[in-house]
From TrEMBL:
Name of the protein in question: DDE Tnp4 domain-containing protein
Main location: nucleus
Cofactor(s) needed: a divalent metal cation
Species this protein is from: Acanthoscelides obtectus
Domain of life: Eukaryota
DDE Tnp4 domain mapped to chain residues: 182-339
Length: 393
């Protein structure tokens, strides 16, 4: 075996990342080899890591700096890593070392994925920052994306019982009986030229629709993604799984009592017993105006929800992939991350908001085709709100 001087040894050591335990293992191995007659002085500070070093990212940054970089606190990050680690029964994200380059750790996988979701950086840029190849970044993103989608049912849930509906309803202070605010927004995506006509929206950009319902804490309770951006909000909602189930099984499939609980939406939606919309037209009465004010005051929660969603996870402001299914998965994973952070008290400050909210109020309004029962319910709520206001004043 050729003799190995200090310089050559350092070059080899610089090609991979070693922890303190790994250094001890290597030195013990060298003692048993033919190289044991040579003396080496190992300077750990001179080593250049080949694989992501997790410890500096976790320990060297203050919590505020870590939050700005990865869009969540260190505590929330560790809890997310533990949650994903438990679901990774086959140790896909935490492979043991079997020789060659050291595999990226579980923490490393999640840090790279969070950076991908929090920025608009290219795979090359992310790979350069974390000292991995662009293909490794893509592989890591796809693997963590798979586990994030597995968490969807656990973190995006529509209320199912009276207690849950009552708790959500109490969070909406202005309008009674609300268990969710519904609206749509556009996720700009890259689309193949042959399909662009279907995905061009009113902004003259290609996008997909995100139809969502949120509670008073801006938690997503229902999301429906993937419909082409050229479709109107009402059409997207009517073709959602929720509406299909309501048509098939009736409103009680989601709402225990449509006379007591309902969603609220803007004028882009049709009036129903389980979806209350504002009064439309120029000749609305004083009572109807106050009804619209109360409804809009609570409905704005979904606008805040979209603002935090797009402001925190900037990848969803424009998803640069030709695969629409992949774009839907990325946007869905961002919804899961959004809920995970809120449930762990990791809120996103309004100071970080810097995007335009996608509102549909100024679109051509639909004809008010709500049924008689729905109109009676809305009138009854308007009467109650107006009487309460009169009694207070």
């Amino acid at each position: 075996m050729e003799s190995l001087n200090k310089k050559t040894f350092m070059i080899l050591m610089g090609e991979m990342f070693f922890s303190s335990e790994d250094i001890v293992h290597v030195l013990n191995h060298l003692k048993k080899s033919l190289l044991c007659s040579h003396k080496f002085v190992v300077n750990i500070k001179d080593m250049t890591p080949k694989i992501l070093m997790v410890e500096p990212w976790i320990c060297s940054y203050e919590n505020f700096q870590f939050f700005k970089l990865f869009r969540m606190s260190k505590k929330t990050f560790i809890e997310l890593a533990e949650k994903i680690g438990k679901s990774d029964e086959k140790k896909i994200l935490a492979k043991p070392y079997t020789g060659g380059h050291y595999p990226v750790s579980l923490y490393g996988h999640i840090l790279i994925f969070l950076w991908y979701m929090a920025t608009q950086d290219t795979l090359l840029s992310i790979g350069t920052r974390f000292k991995v190849s662009p293909t490794t970044v893509m592989s890591i993103t796809n693997k963590v994306l798979y586990f994030m989608l597995k968490l969807k049912s656990a973190y995006i849930k529509f209320p199912k019982n009276e207690a849950e509906m009552r708790d959500i309803s109490e969070g909406f202070k202005k309008y009674p009986g609300v268990i969710g605010a519904v609206d749509g927004t556009h996720i700009f995506v890259k689309v193949e030229k042959s399909q662009q006509d279907s995905y061009i929206d009113r902004y003259r950009r290609t996008s997909i629709n995100l139809m969502a319902i949120c509670d008073s804490n801006t938690l997503f309770t229902y999301v429906f993604l993937g419909y082409p951006g050229s479709a109107h909000d009402s059409r997207v909602f009517e073709n959602s799984i929720m509406c299909k189930n309501i048509e098939r099984h009736g409103p009680n499939f989601y709402f225990l009592d449509t006379q007591k609980y309902h969603l609220i939406g803007d004028s882009a939606f049709a009036l129903r017993t389980w979806l209350i919309t504002p009064y439309r037209g120029d000749n609305v009465t004083r009572k109807q105006k106050f009804h619209n004010y109360c409804l809009s005051s609570d409905r704005v929660k979904i606008e805040h929800c979209f603002g935090a969603y797009k402001g925190r996870w900037r990848r969803v402001q424009y998803i640069n992939t030709y695969n629409i299914c992949k774009a839907v998965e990325i946007a869905t994973a961002a919804c899961v991350l959004h809920n995970f952070c809120i449930l762990h008290k990791d809120t996103w400050s309004n100071d970080f908001f810097g995007i335009d909210l996608d509102r549909n109020i100024n679109q051509a309004e639909l004809e008010d085709r709500g049924n008689i029962e729905a109109k009676r319910k809305r009138n009854r709520i308007a009467d109650t709100l107006f009487l309460c206001r009169y009694n207070i004043e």
